[in-house]
């Protein structure tokens, strides 16, 4: 049982054409398995999160009751991207599991909306948000090591509180970024294989082997998104994460939650509700 479907081209060459569609179910089961194991771990085994005391005591009186987390622009980006992503998943995979409909036009239009929103996000995050807040730093790696040692019952110091994003969120953002760039780059080329009103169809733009590899990369990154989206939604609805999810709707989180999980020295908050940098970024 191969991971890729092959066919013989008119030139007699063996070429890849798609991923094997059973991978859809592998991705669904992987996502569901992760959330069942994680939920059981959290319910029966996980201990209360503990952090080393930060230096913020006595210096937080100036903080507002609601801490700005995501600007309106970042929130609009997040929800446009979420809507286009769900449309892409539904239009791509329902027909593959037996629900037939004319999916291609809905799919590439949602793909264009995702592409535009990602281009916008790159500019917005590079010039208007705190660009480095979503990339792992040295403290994240040191704390990840401490957390791993403590998980296995080995002696280790307490980790620091998080910056704006914990390491797990940063790694998730990295996985979404890589898969997102893969579906966008291949998807735009694949639009030359179908009829759109944007440019003339040209199925001869690439050879059969290149087209095949492109469909396969699009498919692998696409099924990867099934697992990524399942885990993302699962974390969004977990009770202890609801204040963060609410932040993506209303833009702010409570001062108590901020001080419990975040280190003001690592995530400096700009109290102005309209400030882009303190209230930055939508992941
Ligand atoms: C999460 C995002 C996406 C997922 C899950 C996804 C999934 C898929 C899948 C599974 C296919 C069928 C591939 C095959 O037959 O081997 C497909 C085809 C296609 N996708 Fe996507 N895709 C995504 C994003 C995009 C984007 C961003 C674009 C455009 C910019 C795009 C444009 C296309 C086009 C044009 C086709 C070809 C349709 C055809 O040849 O019949 N997709 N997509």
Please characterize this protein's 3D structure:
Residues 278-283 have low confidence and may be disordered. The protein is mainly alpha-helical. The chain is built from 8 helices and 4 strands, in the order ββαβααααααβα. The relative contact order is 0.19. The radius of gyration is 22 Å and the shape is elongated. The strands form 2 sheets. The chain has a two-stranded antiparallel ribbon with strand order 1-2. The longest helix has 30 residues, at 208-237. The two termini are 36 Å apart. α1 runs parallel beside α6 and α5 (167-190) runs antiparallel to α6 (208-237). Residues 18, 85, 88-89, 92, 104, 107-108, 111-112, 114-115, 183-184, 187-188, 190-191, 193-194, 215, 218-219, 222, 225 line the site of protoporphyrin IX containing FE (HEM). Protoporphyrin IX containing FE binds next to α2, α3, α5 and α6.
Mind telling me the C-alpha Rg?
A: 22 Å
Described by strand count, sense and barrel closure, the largest sheet is:
2 strands, antiparallel
Distance between the termini: 36 Å
Task: Decide which structural class fits the backbone.
Answer: mainly alpha
Biggest sheet, strands in spatial order?
1-2
Query: Would you list the SSEs in sequence order as H and E?
Result: EEHEHHHHHHEH
Q: Please report which band the strand proportion falls in: under 5%, 5-15%, 15-25%, 25-35%, 35-45% or over 45%.
A: 5-15%
Q: Which residues sit in consecutive blocks of at least 5 with pLDDT less than 50?
A: 278-283
Q: What is the 3D shape?
A: elongated
Distinct ligands: protoporphyrin IX containing FE
Average pLDDT score: 93
Report helical residue fraction: 40-55%
Please give the number of β-strands: 4
């Amino acid at each position: 049982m191969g991971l890729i479907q092959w066919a013989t081209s008119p030139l007699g060459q063996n070429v890849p054409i798609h991923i094997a569609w059973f991978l859809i179910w592998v991705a669904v089961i992987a996502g569901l398995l992760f959330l069942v194991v994680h939920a059981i771990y959290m319910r029966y085994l996980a201990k209360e999160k503990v952090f080393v005391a930060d230096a913020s005591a006595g210096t937080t009186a100036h903080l507002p009751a609601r801490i700005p987390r995501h600007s309106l622009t970042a929130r609009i980006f997040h929800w446009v991207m979420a809507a286009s992503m769900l449309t892409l998943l539904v239009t791509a995979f329902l027909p593959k599991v037996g629900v037939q409909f004319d999916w291609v036009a809905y799919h590439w239009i949602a793909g264009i909306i995702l592409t535009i929103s990602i281009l916008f996000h790159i500019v917005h995050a590079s010039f208007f948000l705190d660009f480095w807040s979503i990339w792992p730093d040295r403290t994240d790696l040191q704390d990840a090591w401490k957390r791993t040692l403590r998980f296995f019952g080995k002696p280790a110091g307490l980790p620091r509180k998080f910056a704006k994003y914990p390491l797990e969120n940063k790694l998730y953002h990295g996985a979404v970024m890589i898969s997102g760039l893969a579906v966008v780059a291949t998807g735009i080329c694949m639009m030359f294989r179908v009829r759109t009103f944007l440019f003339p169809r040209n199925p001869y733009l690439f050879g059969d082997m290149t087209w095949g590899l492109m469909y396969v990369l699009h498919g692998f990154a696409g099924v990867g998104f099934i697992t990524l989206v399942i885990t993302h939604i699962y974390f969004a609805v977990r009770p202890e994460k609801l204040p963060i999810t609410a932040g993506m709707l209303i833009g702010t989180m409570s001062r108590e939650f901020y001080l419990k999980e975040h280190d003001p020295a690592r995530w400096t908050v700009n109290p102005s509700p309209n400030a882009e940098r303190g209230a930055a970024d939508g992941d």
